[in-house]
Design brief:
Distance between the termini: 66 Å
Enzyme class: hydrolase
Catalytic activity: Release of a C-terminal amino acid with broad specificity, except for -Pro
Helix content: 55-70%
Number of helices: 20
Shape: globular
CATH topology of the largest domain: Neurolysin, domain 3
Structural class: mainly alpha
Family: Belongs to the peptidase M32 family.
Strand content: under 5%
Protein name: Metal-dependent carboxypeptidase
GO molecular function: metal ion binding; metallocarboxypeptidase activity
Radius of gyration: 22 Å
Length: 490
Amino acid sequence: MTAFQELMAFQRETEALGQVMGRLGWDQETVMPSGAGAQRAEEMGALDGVLHARRTDPRIGEWLEAAEAPDEAGARQLDEIRFVFERTQRVPARLSAALARTTSLAHRAWAEARAANDFEMFAPKLSEVLDLTREKAAALADGGDLYDALLQDYEPGASGAELEAMFGALRPRLVALRERVLGSERVVPPMDRAFDEAGQLAISTTLAAAFGYDLNHGRIDKAVHPFSSGSGLDVRITTRTELHNPSNCFYSTIHEVGHAAYEQNVDGAYLLTPLGCGASMGVHESQSRIYENQLGRSRAFTGWLYRQMRGVFGDFGVANEDDFYAAINRCNTGYIRTEANEVHYNLHVLLRFDLERDLVAGRLEVADLPEAWNARFFKDFGVEVDVPANGVLQDVHWSEALFGYFPTYTLGNVYAGCLNAAMRAEVSGLDEALSLGDTRPATDWLKTKIQRHGKRYQPKDLIGKATGAAPSEAPLLEYLETKFGGIYGL
C-alpha cells in the first residue's frame, strides 16, 4: 500500500474505536446500571488511553510526511489527521486519561446533584474537571488564549473575541424584541392538561420518521438530557417526556433528529474517516435548530402536528391550528435553556458563554459560580433562580469538560438563519409540503448543501457555499422579528 493508504487504514481503526467509546457514553446515559459508575470510569479511561496512543503514534507523522493525496477530498483527510495528530501530541496521555475518568465520575455526580438540587454535591468534581481542563487548555494554547484553544475542538477557526462581537450585535435586538413581546397585549396560554407518555412517544416516533431519521440505523431512547450519539450506520438519539408539556418531547426529538440526520446523510465514502462527521458543532447545531424551529415550529408544520395530536389525544384544549401555532411558539420567561423559546434561547447561551470564559481564564471559581449565574440570570431575565436544578445545575456540559461548546448553540442559530433565508429563496412550495407533514423539500436541500459533505469544508466555507454569503446574524434577527411580530401583533 502507499503511505496514504496505510495511514487511512490505520485511521479507520482509530475512528472505529472512537465510535465504541461513544457507545459507552450513550450506554452510560441511557441503560447503564446506577452502581456501575466507578467501573465505567475505569473503562472510559482505559479506552481513552488506547485512543490517545493511536492518535500520537509516531508512524502518523511518518505517513503524513510521505503521503500524497489522490484528490481534493484526500487532501482534506490529511489536513484533519494532521490537525488531530499535532493537537493530541500536546496533551500528555496521563492528562487525557485523567479527564476521561474524571468526567465519567463527574457526570454521575452532576446527575445526582441535579436530582437533589444541591450544587455542593457537584462542586468538588466540577473543580477537578475545571483544573484538568485548564491544564489541557494551557498545553494546547502554547502561550495563547486558553478559551480559544478549547474552542477549536468544537468550532475550528473561531475565537472568543470574534464570537463576542457577533453576540454583541445580537444582544440589543434580542433584548428589545423580548421586551416588545412580553409587553404585548396578546396572552398566549400554555397547553394545560396531562398528555400520557405513550401518546407522546408515539408522536415522537412519527416526527422522527417525518424528518427523515432512519430507524434501521438508529434508535430512540429516553435520557435526562436529550442527545444524539454516533455517526454513519449507527446513530442514536434520546428524548424525554414531561406529563404537562408534550412539546418538550416533540421538539427534543426533532432537534436530535437534526443532529442524527446530518450524521446519517454524510457521503458513505467518508464512513469511518476524519471527514465522516459534521463540519463543526456550530454547523451541527444549525441542522438541529433549523429542523426544530424554522421547519418544526413553522405555521405550516404545526398545522400538521396539531392534527396528529388530535388523532392521538382527542380534544386537548386548543381550539384550532392558529392557536396551536401560537402555543408552540409561546414566549415566556423560563429557567431552562432547552425549553426556551426562540426569543430567549440565545440569551441563555450568552450567559453560559460569558461564565465559562471566566471559569477557564480563572476570573471565576467554582465556589462562586452559583452566585454569578443567579445574578446574571436576574439581570437578563428579570427573575430570581429558585433552585439549582433550574440554574447552574441544569446542563450536563461542564461535567463532561465541554468548555467551548456552549457558544456553538448560538452560532448554530446564526447559521440556521442564513440557511433558512437561502433555502426559502431557492425551494418553491416549501410551506405547502410542510403543511402535509412532508419535510423532504427542505431536508433534501439541507442534505445536498450541508450534510453530505461531512467535514469536507471548513465551517464558514461550508455555510458560504450553501448560501452564497458569509455568515451573518442579520437573517436570524429578521426571521425572529418577523415571526414573533406576527404572533404577538407587534
